[in-house]
Design brief:
Layout (H helix, E strand, L loop, with lengths): L1 H9 L4 E4 L7 E3 L4 E3 L11 H10 L6 E4 L6 H10 L3 E2 L2 H7 L3 H15 L5 H4 L19 H12 L1
Parallel strand pairs: 1-4, 4-5
Antiparallel strand pairs: 2-3
Helix pairs in contact: 2-3, 3-5
């Protein structure tokens, strides 16, 4: 992924969207036909875009747009702190309606005030791989540590 992002950046891409959902058809077993299927994202799906945005932030010139899994202010904050320039919340708007944006924005502003952030620019990339206290958390080497957290949670 990072190699492709770098190649796109070098070729002049202004921005990368990580990761747009691919809508895939399903098979209706009763009617024996291919049918469209739409499953809206959840906040849990933000992890993949977060990982790659955090890895790419500061390593390429292109803007980074986080999509898939952005539903609440917390998701926007995570995307920004990973290094996203934009956080897109399509599924949240389809599910909750456009007025949901007011709540997300109010919650975002409240959090920033509580944590004494003066601007989005100040927080952007603060938890990217290059900036966070434990950069290895974004790498494959963190696999065993992650699995061990499951073991602890299951006990």
């Amino acid at each position: 992924m990072s190699n492709m992002a770098k190649r796109l950046d070098d070729a002049g891409a202004d921005a990368l969207v990580l990761f747009n959902r691919f809508y895939q058809p399903d098979i209706d077993l009763e009617r024996l036909e291919v049918v469209p299927a739409l499953n809206l994202s959840t906040s849990r799906e933000l992890r993949l875009p977060l990982r790659w945005i955090a890895i790419l932030h500061g390593r390429i010139k292109a803007n980074l747009a986080a999509t898939t899994g952005i539903h609440e202010a917390e998701d926007v904050l995570k995307a920004l702190m990973a290094g996203a320039d934009v956080a897109m919340l399509c599924s949240a708007l389809l599910h909750n309606g456009v007025p949901h944006l007011k709540k997300v924005l109010a919650d975002l502003e409240r959090w920033m005030e509580e944590k004494e952030y003066e601007s989005v620019r100040q927080m952007k990339g603060s938890m990217s791989q290059r900036s966070c206290p434990e950069p290895a958390a974004f790498e494959r080497a963190n696999y065993m540590k992650t699995l061990n957290t499951w073991k602890k949670m299951a006990l």
